[in-house]
Specification:
476 residues, alpha/beta, Rossmann fold, 2 domains, seven-stranded mixed sheet, five-stranded mixed sheet, binds NADPH dihydro-nicotinamide-adenine-dinucleotide phosphate, binds 2-oxoglutaric acid
Amino acid sequence: MSDQPTATRSGSFQQNVALMLDRALKEVKLEPGADRALKSCNATLQVSFPIKLRGEVRTFTGWRAVHSTHRLPAKGGLRFSPTVDQDDTEALAALMTYKCAIVDVPFGGSKGGLCIDPTQYDRDEMELITRRFARELARRGFLSPATNVPAPDVGTGQREMAWILDTYKNLYPEDINYVGCVTGKPVDLGGMPGRLEATGRGIQYALREFFRHPAEVQAAGLQGSLEGKRIIVQGLGNVGYHAAKFLQEEDGARIVGIIEREGALIDERGLSVEAVRCYMNEHGTVLGYPDARFVDKGASVLAEDCDVLIPAALEGVIHKDNAESIRAPLIIEAANGPITYEADEILRGKGTVILPDIYANAGGVVVSYFEWIRNLSHIRFGRLQRRLDETRGEHIVSALEMMSGEKTPAWMRENLIRGAEEVDLVRSGLDDAMRVAFQEIARFRREGGRHLDYRTAAYALAVTRINLGSLDLGAY
Ligand SMILES: NC(=O)C1=CN([C@@H]2O[C@H](COP(=O)(O)OP(=O)(O)OC[C@H]3O[C@@H](n4cnc5c(N)ncnc54)[C@H](OP(=O)(O)O)[C@@H]3O)[C@@H](O)[C@H]2O)C=CC1
Ligand SMILES: O=C(O)CCC(=O)C(=O)O
């Protein structure tokens, strides 16, 4: 029944990322040897720590990899999963370096992970374990607002970020910027409205931008807008749920398939994302969900007919053994590394258009950047000018009414006088980041007569931006 991760990958996650980088490096001129510097992690910390639980001592192992420090802090999520290991953590840290460069966020790349199955521990036990892990990271300089700032990833969320923040604050109360030691924390504790859904929102904005370019849409064998497009999403966690929900509710897309751990739900008429999520929250599974066809072997649904496929769960789910069967003409990588290098080659050969992870799922880190700036500036965005903007809006409405002698319609009045709330500013900044990055990648892939796929162009553009001249070249 269970549909466990099906990653059949030749080579490790890191080797796959390195192969993708190699392909892009053919498009970029670098100093000799610089490619090796780009492939290796600057530092990886491994910690193992014992905790007494349920009358016995249990030992937990975790990692925090720092891929690059050309900008500081190094930034990236923290994953709690039984499959976490050093190789995956280092691969994910490298992706963070390229991702930050693509969306022009001034961070180095980092990622962390704790090898644990969070479902096996209760809330108090998880708090104990998370706080201890945070202490191990902080004591060794792998957690601080200046050098290394974690965020949520698989198996972690606002709750874990709050525990980490509190642990750091207790260790370093004299650090006036302590609130910025993590992002993705609860809004009450200095988190940013809009960060929770930011990665999913970024997927929506990336797709909207793609569909604003008819030539790119046509090249994918599609036409029109997102309205009515048939979408299959894998993983209804933080990223997958928000992406699918916004695309359905705000763009009129039809979610015809949802693939979860225990199997998949299919409905050609469109599944209600909200209803499925509510069912999952209540029952802990999609098993037994009414009003949809259930497919036992969920991963097989990746190959079902649809317009857009959104893998939003795990790495390596599209691999050499299933790539040929994928029918979606457009794949947007909401997860990190869902397509292996070999599968990517097969899909490219078939003409499948892939919007790569280092662009597509960057919405999270973009809003993390806003959160970190807000924390360092100790003031919420818009606090100083919101009422001023509203007063100016009222003056404009009064002037219009005086000149025209007519009453302004209520909806127009509301739009003109309402000062932006913080979440409006966050969405606007995120939308801008996703639009600009898409346009830059699209330009780069065609520049000088080139005809690159989006992934190769994104990697090449990132490497160009990382500006090797500013890397740590030992000039100390
Ligand atoms: N959170 C963020 O801001 C960002 C996340 N990402 C990436 O997005 C991906 C998802 O992260 P996130 O949404 O945060 O993680 P979550 O843990 O919130 O969600 C992952 C979802 O995938 C499901 N899942 C696990 N295994 C399978 C499987 N074999 N088949 C189908 N579904 C499965 C999980 O089910 P279950 O709960 O049963 O395990 C869960 O619903 C990861 O690759 C992450 O690195 C990228 C950028 C930012
Ligand atoms: O928000 C962040 O800092 C990092 C998000 C992340 O881990 C990712 O983009 O993979």
